[in-house]
Amino acid sequence: MKLTKTLLAAGLSIGLLTGCALDRSAIITVNGEAITKAQYEKILNEQLKSPQFQNMPAEAKAENSYIMLMTKDRITNELIVKTILEQQIKKHKITVSNEEIKAKRKEIADKIGSEERLQEILKQNNVSESKLREDIVNEIKIDKLVSATGDTKVSDKEISDFYNKNKASFNRPERVRASHILIEANPDKIKQEVIDADKNGKLTAAEIDAKVKAKMDEKMALAKKVREEAVKNPDKFADLAKKYSDDKGSAIQGGDLGFFPKEAMVKPFADAAFSLKPNVVSEIVVSEFGNHIIIVKDRAAKGMQPLDKVKDEIKTFLEQQKKIEALQKLFAGLKAEAKIEYVDKSFDPANIQNALRQNIPQAGNMSPVQQ
């Protein structure tokens, strides 16, 4: 899974900027630096474990099949990209601090909604915390490399021109700015925890259900207690969120979720948030995530957003576009100047393309993945 955008949009893979060479036998050299068979096979084996490959028929996974040749061509290019960029990062002596990593991680969590949502996405995509950290480090390095080699500054005129050309994009629906406290309560998750804890399988189905109900009741009791405190002291809502909320991403910010339209949230949460008056603490709202206590801080009416309200948003977008263009231009120039030798000729793009032409699948013989 990739949670950052610059390299993805540029057609490059941040996950490849770090690799280990267990096998020193070179299949390619880039400016005298070896790319090994082990590096290639590590990436290939990871991809072969994906559901996309697992569901393919055996013939599609044969070494010289059309799909495998396409995969070989892509991985080869990614390894060359990785090596060239690493060489430039070393040349410019680019490093990343722990503070920069923490700031970028928070930025990612904020963009996708919350720390809870980030954790959910990581789990769904089987991405470890160490892999996320690695990707973040690589993203920061690339940003610094682009800044060191190209101009990504955005002028006020560029922002104004973009706004005037894309006014329809800034005709926004009604939005609210709300904070919440989440007391996580998922009966399916709790049930699995109960089952996992019952090592000897002694509990009956009725006993398991009883334990789940007891835990859910406990969660609701805590939510009621926290809500009572929030009703008594609405000004302390942020402190309560930091202390009690299971949504750790927003909890750090006192539960603040920023502005959002109604369709951005699950229905029970959205219905409650959009019906609340500012600075009034909601009743307990139950969603698939658990028990929410909500307070609305501000509202934004639907309609055209003035330039001064969206200036920062446009600036961020244009800076991102400039970074992508600068990275593509940088890499194109570096690759053209690089001395690339295909020690193993089967990895030469010309030879791969020739093999592909000989293996173009007929329409009737294509796998579901190819179609």
Task: Walk me through what this model shows.
With 371 residues, this protein is of the alpha+beta class. 55% of the residues lie in helices and 12% in strands. The chain contains 15 helices and 9 strands. The chain has helices spanning 6-9, 37-48, 51-54, 66-91, 98-112, 115-124, 129-149, 156-165, 187-197, 205-232, 237-244, 248-251, 267-275, 307-337, 349-358; strands at 26-30, 33-36, 171-172, 175-184, 256-261, 285-287, 290-300, 303-304, 340-341. The strands form 3 sheets. It has a 4-stranded antiparallel sheet with strand order 5-4-7-6, sandwiched between helices. Strand 6 (285-287) and strand 7 form a beta hairpin. Helix 4 runs antiparallel to helix 15 (349-358) and helix 8 crosses helix 14 (307-337). It starts with 5 loop residues before the first helix and ends in a 13-residue tail after the last helix. The model is unreliable at 1-23 and 362-371 (pLDDT under 50).
